[in-house]
Design brief:
five-stranded mixed beta barrel; OB fold (Dihydrolipoamide Acetyltransferase, E2P); single chain; globular
């Protein structure tokens, strides 16, 4: 071994062992919170509407509506977007505190651990209704049933043609008290 070997730490070995330690930690120690999803559907109660496309159900799980992306109201680094408050209020008025039926697709959970679902109240699919009322675009870039993608595209086209919500070209009227 060279005489100056003891003066310089073996950086290659340190980096290699650090990588091995991180991989082992990720595989064996750190386990992200996962929840067991029901096999098919689930009848449950909505405890709280977080925003237009995210719900909290009585089992404690967050639900993200498939195919829907309402304007943001609670982004940590941005102000609320136009029509976000209206989309949230629409969803809240329709389902908060009510019994709903969740149906799942191929992808059942997103990277944040939220369940991905179609939400039905009184036989009406909330996902489609939000799009049809102009509170959301049809978000079809993620993998889910093609018949539902087509349904959502038709709902968006109808909202566009009628100039509803985000397609109205107007900012929502904010009630002042």
């Amino acid at each position: 071994m060279p005489a100056n070997w003891r003066r310089y730490p073996p950086w290659g070995a340190i980096v290699s062992w650090t990588i091995v330690a991180l991989v082992l930690w990720r595989l064996y120690i750190y386990q992200p919170a996962t929840s067991v999803l029901p096999a098919e559907g689930l009848d449950t109660r909505v405890v709280r509407v977080v925003d237009g496309d995210t719900l909290l159900i009585e089992q404690g799980h967050r639900i993200r509506l498939l195919g829907v992306d309402t304007p943001e109201t609670k982004h940590p680094n941005r102000p609320a977007e136009p029509w976000g408050a209206e989309a949230s209020a629409f969803t809240r008025d329709l389902i908060e505190g009510r019994e709903v039926r969740l149906e799942f697709d191929r992808e059942r959970q997103d990277r944040y651990g939220r369940w991905l679902a179609y939400v039905f109240v009184d036989g009406v699919m909330l996902n489609e209704l939000l799009i049809r009322q102009g509170y959301s675009r049809a978000e079809i870039r993620f993998p889910f049933r093609s018949d539902r993608q087509r349904l959502f595209q038709k709902a968006e086209q109808a909202a566009r043609e009628e100039g509803l919500g985000i397609w109205s070209g107007e900012s929502p009227v904010v009630a002042t008290e």
